[in-house]
Amino acid sequence: MVYTIRSPALLIIGIVMLAWGALNNAGAVDGLQAWLHPGVYKEHAAAKAKQEADAKAAQEMAAEGKAAPEAKKPSASKFDGLKANQARLSYAFGGIFTLVGLVVLLRKPSEGSADYYLSVIPGIAFILLIAFIVRWGLDPIFGNWGKAAEPTLGWNFARIFNLNYVVIGIVIGIVTVNVFKIPNWAANGVRTSRFFLKTGVILLGTLYSAAELAQLGALSVVMIGVFVLGSVWLVLLMGPRMKAENSMTGVLSAGVGVCGVSASVAAAPVVQAKAVDIAYTIGTILIWGVMCMFIFPTIGKLLGMGPVQFGAWAGTGILNSAQVAGAALAFDPRGIETLKVAEIFNITRVLFLPIIVLWLAAWYVKREEGAQQVDLKQVVISKFPIFVLGFIFMFILSTMGVFAPPGHYQGKYFSSTEIKEDKLLKSKDLEALQAALPKMRNEKETEALKALIADKKETTREQDGILRSVAKIPDLDESAKKALESAHKAAWHTSKRITAFRDWIAWLFAFGLIGLGMQITAKSLKQAGGKPLIIGSMVGTIKAVGSLIVVLLFVREFV
Amino acid sequence: MAFIPETLLLGHHGTEGAGRAEDLAFQLAAPGHSRVLHLLVVPDFWAGMQGDDWLNNASTRDVFARYVEGMLEKDAAEQVAALGARCRARGLEYSSLVRFGDPTQCLLEAAAAHSVSAVVIGPPRPKGVPGFRSGVDFAALVRSVRTPVIIASRG
Fold first, then answer.
1. pTM above the 0.90 mark?
2. Which string of DSSP letters, residue by residue, matches A359-386?
3. ipTM summary value
């Protein structure tokens, strides 16, 4: 079979990307970029004006015969960096897509591996183009609209509804598949989104310290242990009482309990689920997942949750694993602290999957005559998520200091001797923080902020964790937020390589989630119904509310 | 003058409504003269039934896909065999079409391709009755079809 479809689409996408890169490089879209990023542009314009004024003053001094101060080399502004980054990515991918697009058009397709691999590139380009538009265009547009409407509405709708690149990307993916249909030339490539999400998880392994991973791992094992096993048990209990068939109960308990659609897919053949069981269950889980992805981040923000609390809650309470990543990034799209926490929970869930499948197999065999016995070894091997090994490998490499100095992760700059004088908070920062003190929500936050004001720097990781949460208080003054950010950055020196990993991880997840959005069809959502909808809704609600209560009561921001 | 159809296109996928359509088709068809063309549609929502699963490896997804395909194929084969036997028992010629897609679209295509005398389908499923949500869009069917459409009553 020949997979590659001869279409000019890839070539056109490549040319569009190249053109965007060239326009940015030439400064031809500066006006548009300034409109999209007014804050960054304002800083850029102010720095430029100051630079020109300094140059003019120096010229005047020189004209008067006085010694002019030495001119400093102007550093690239954030605005310039933003444009350069867009140009670099546009050139790199636009170049590749243009070349491959020409090959697709000129080569006569023939069967083989080359044809198959070639056939996925147009779909990848299609998703990447959407990702570029969403991240570089729609995300700042909604951000600006949210801010503009704030004085009228009294609240920032873009922030409350999390209208950032992740949510908009997933919504565009869902709209694309259900309204416009995925073009034939892109269909093969769209399926690669899973691969890119897994690559994102593998790269995420570079961002954890050993202590962080140990503590998050322990927390996730306890939370997932209680809530996964608890919800599987609850469904197994409710199913027979509601006269649901064993196969339906089995497939639903995996889906509701472990990791949503993935668990249903893994468990369905083992419990010999009927067609209607599968359709009802997967429809129910998809609907719940999509709803949770919108509701969870909004609740998290309203409750003032920090990254660890929200990551733990989303990682436990959201039924479907894809939406765990989506909600975590929707909650915290700039840094990926929340994603780091949530993905540990996702990994723990998937590691629980073979155990749950074996449990369900045993449960089913006990209840159904003629049910097939399963091979324990075969289940464990076939269901083991290999990408987790990649995650562990990257974690080991990073712990060995391959990507950054070993002290990087421990926050060694908390110690008073190693922080430079110019990194200490300035008096205007201290004033802003002093003014923010009445807004602290509890004694711990007040103490942490007072200590920061006294020391002009963070001194412990715990204090850093608390202040990261303080920085998310909705009505906190911008200058106080900036001061908190400066204090955090002074304590945490992030290596350039790790920063690059973070950026790539955000792109990989954005890409993967847009692609997965394209696999959520209205027709499959419509199948939600029957007893799975009733039981799934009850257990899903118990799980979401129960895990929220546990997180709020027992999980602290410091890990 | 009585309506004696040559070919009746019967939309039938084993539900209660399809059973009513079958009864109606048998009333309309004349033994030794009429042919029942059985259209069985496997709804295309199955294509999206792996949803946004991304955690499983390819082998788990393949096992699931083969399991679902096998189940749908077996179900279709059983229904075709059963309806074929019932038609032949009544002296009616029988042939079948198994299609994967949107039921309304498949009905329209089959009606156009096989120059049928009439299309016979079951009534819409009453609310609350379990089953797949992949029924025929009656408005779209009636708008586009070029042959008479007969909808069995709920009884």
1. no
2. HHHHHHHHHSTTPPP--HHHHHHHH--T
3. 0.89
